[in-house]
């Protein structure tokens, strides 16, 4: 595997840097040697960022996430990390603990000799010893494979390409400047393409980290079970993995932009019910939005990772962890296409409106009336989109397990729901500026999106009020969506008999009504 990942890494770097070199040569020919100064500055900035990033991340972890780097970890895990460090000729990584109930695990640093691994306390409560080792082995895989260094190296390409675009598109319309601008736009197209190549490489390296974990623990099913418990939100009701690091519970080793904690209880002995797993996999396997979100993500879909891990189970004398054999009874493409149209409709109204207005404009053209019509059409399109994401009727009391089985749901289409459970931590583990929550009910835990109209109000709530709700029972009324991870946007919540409201929905409705009235008035004045 080491030769395979090294070969892919070198080939990728060679191709991307070869492409970058070709662009730089063109830029030098068109814009002269001075262009190299800007390119050089961009590269120096990235190198400085790479060298200083661990230091500033350490500060961020301590100040904003309250991570502790001087606390003891369970003996079994310490022994496992020591064994791995010796085997792979690396220094023992610094271990940080975040005392929060939301799930997370990640690594950062420059090389394998100055790496940090940060874990939330919940992994020791949620997972058993073998599963904890499997998750930590995944993070060690990133360290051993020099993923931090490699991903920084490939990031040079889009950074320089964007700098070239910025530099060459500031032209004065003479022939040489037009040529420079053309090269600049080519650089921008390559910049976009390179960003998606990097995302693909990141997803590939997640598979390599999974493979590393499998080979080092020789227990693929432990890694699969951990992924299910943490990523899909499926868990056994028993707590066999508790090691008393803290009172909270959860973990996550997923895309930091999209990972939100969720755990569904599905007791089947000491493992997760396979039927519950298949039920949770349906959305990723069948809903077209899943592929789109994966395309824009640093991590593969959980269902794909599970199937890849399961394919290796027999190598280690284990039964495949999961075989997805459910049959799709309907197509979800029509819902997907409708949601795409609804999503872009407000923007399309504005673009088409401007284009038509340009062609229709003359001395007798009634500009106010036309702007009023476009404004009204925009409001209608925006309201359709807003209403579909905030269906304000038929709020049904449900639980996390039932929500995860829904396929016809997305960031565009919501399911109104009512959940009863306990607040166990922040949505972003340990972050003092994060206003969101994790709720746990009798079937598991899920991310709650707390979103007042003003960002300032959210941050004030996060800093001074949110901790008051930890470990309290709560009833939440809101909208369940996926993008791609399940979450519930809060409309209102009840704690200690008092109901608190989120005013974003109401204010947004009032805004659209006012904008609609203003458009009508503009049409007739």
Number of domains: 2
DSSP strand content = 5-15%
Helix content: 55-70%
Tell me about the biggest sheet?
5 strands, mixed, barrel
Instruction: Quickly give the structural class.
Output: alpha/beta
User: Which stretches are poorly predicted, pLDDT < 50 over at least 5 residues?
Assistant: 236-252, 259-269
- Whole-number mean pLDDT: 85
Q: What is the molecular shape?
A: globular
What distance separates the N and C termini?
A: 72 Å
> What is the succession of H and E elements?
HHHEEEHHHHHEEEEHHHHHEHEEEHEEEH
**Radius of gyration from the CA trace?**
26 Å
User: Given the structure, what is the number of helices?
Assistant: 16
Secondary structure: number of strands:
14
Taking strands numbered 1, 2, ... along the chain, how are they ordered across the largest sheet?
9-10-11-13-12
